[in-house]
Amino acid sequence: MDKKIKIKAKHVDFFYGKSQALKNINMDIFDCDVTAIIGPSGCGKSTFIRLLNRMHELVPHTNVTGEVLLDGQNIFCCSMDAVEVRKRVGMVFQKPNPFPKSIFDNISYGLKVNGIKDKYFIEEKVERSLRKAALWEEVKDRLYDSALRLSGGQQQRLCIARTLAVESETILFDEPCASLDPISTAKIEELILELKKDYTIVIVTHNMQQAARVSDYTAFFLMGELIEFGKTQEIFTAPKDSKTEAYITGRFG
Amino acid sequence: MKKNNDIIQQIGFSILFFCIIITLFFLGLIIFFISIRGMSVISWEFLTQVPKSSMTQGGVAPAIVGTFYLTLGAILFALPLGLACAIYLCEYTPKGFVVNLIRVSINNLAGVPSVVFGLFGLAVFVNFFGFGVSILSGSLTLGIVILPLIISSTQEALMAVPQSIREASLSLGATKWETIKNIVLPTALPGILTGVILSIGRAAGETAPILFTAAAFYMRGYPKSIFSEVMALPYHIYALMTEGAHPDKQRAIAYGCSLILLWLVLLISGFAIFIRQRQRGVHG
């Protein structure tokens, strides 16, 4: 394999207090590919992607051991701080969570906290991000309306646009379509396929058809362990592990 | 069976409706009574002149100005302090026993009788710090009276801000402080302002805390600095009703003062409500 590894997890263990949520995870996430993480509820998949941009630190009494290398640098190492990691690794959440501000301010916020003041640049960036997130045509006439008036699917695309604006190289999707209808889901999936040209994407999903549709690689988690990781096609057609096969054929989960 | 439930429901509704009517009745009665009794003495002179002839004539302008200063001073002191406390307790300390203890203590502080705060103000601000009986001492004392109110309402407002939008902000590379300043506080602002509105009413109307720390029974003119004594409406009402040689005339003036106090609180609150509505408009 000659693909560039964007994120590499090495011997990652994760604890909530005393209970272990992740056990010795070793996994490579390739540059400009979509990696799907599937598994039943409580298997640790959300926990795993939340530590890829150190969001787990918001929850008290958590502890992580092992290494996560982002472009070869350990994100838990002293020279990296969480703010820096999060600038490079963006995240789209399960429920759309726009700020209670205007559409424009939702996108420009990330630029402003990153120290960009040039008004012209910000305006251009907002438009470009909205276009990339396939939302521009729907909102261009009401950029200064509250983002909360958008539909759920539009809000989720706004959240994606917001992440794109800060130029993260990697975007983590934590069940981005869990609260959306099929049409909005299709739009988000289309968008993910478009974005992988420029971005490394990790998506957690409960929907196996979705994993099969959008991802290049798939990881199957069960009870905090990475059971199987490989090309999506292989995982879905010829899984090596019997537990993977049982899960994707719907025998449990 | 079905019919029975309907009847029980009807009775329940009726009781709730009746409770509302009683509340509105008393509220209306208070406003009506104060207005009728108070309007007769209110005139341009009453609002703009100093008291004359043992307070049976002239106006109550120094008391209006005094109450305004005291209330404003109390808010200026308590709002930044209360905001800072609430932000620290809510955002920066890990949830646990100590924070809960502090929270309970603050809520208890809100229940302390205000005359106790008055004595505290006398001991600390008037005597110990040497501010004397003055606007400053009175404002600080009133500030401490409303501090728990501001802290607890701000805490409620901060806790009501969904965790999801904090996460969104942090995931964009904002620091914790940037998140609090740009996202959490603006979202919590309507709730915070509700606390401020309640505090204004409380501060403007309190008598006991300013009794020993700020209030003067009678002043010929207006306060010259924050170290002057002041007249204040609630204390003026109290004085008119309990002292002096012309009870009938004084009573009419006392009602006039009550009406003005109502207006003043309404005016200041109205301003805060205006800001709150504007904020909701932006965010809604």
Describe the protein's architecture and organization:
The complex is a heterodimer of chains A (253) and B (284). Chain A has 253 residues and is of the alpha/beta class. Helix content of chain A is 36%, strand content 26%. Chain A has ten helices and ten strands. Chain A has a six-stranded mixed β-sheet, with helices on both faces. In chain A, a hairpin with a 2-residue loop joins β1 and β2. In chain A, α3 packs parallel to α6, α4 packs across α6 and α6 runs parallel beside α7. The longest helix of chain A is centred in the middle third of the chain and has 14 residues. Chain A is globular. Chain B has 284 residues and is mainly α. Chain B has two domains: 41 residues; 238 residues, MetI-like (MetI-like fold). Chain B is 77% helix and 1% strand. Chain B has eleven helices and two strands, in the order ααββααααααααα. Chain B has a two-stranded antiparallel ribbon with strand order 1-2. In chain B, α10 runs antiparallel to α11. Chain B is globular and about 70 Å long. Chains A and B meet through α2, α3 and α6 of A and α7 and α8 of B.
Question: Helix and strand layout, with pairings?
Answer:
The complex is a heterodimer of chains A (253) and B (284).
Chain A: E1 5-16, E2 19-30, E3 34-38, H1 45-52, E4 62-70, E5 73-74, H2 82-88, E6 89-92, H3 103-113, H4 119-132, H5 136-139, H6 152-165, E7 170-174, H7 182-195, E8 200-204, H8 208-214, E9 217-222, E10 225-231, H9 232-237, H10 242-248
Parallel strand pairs in A: 3-8, 3-9, 6-7, 7-8
Antiparallel strand pairs in A: 1-2, 1-4, 4-5, 9-10
Helix pairs in contact in A: 3-4, 3-6, 4-6, 6-7
Chain B: H1 2-39, H2 44-48, E1 51-52, E2 57-58, H3 61-92, H4 97-110, H5 114-128, H6 135-159, H7 163-171, H8 176-205, H9 208-211, H10 233-242, H11 247-283
Antiparallel strand pairs in B: 1-2
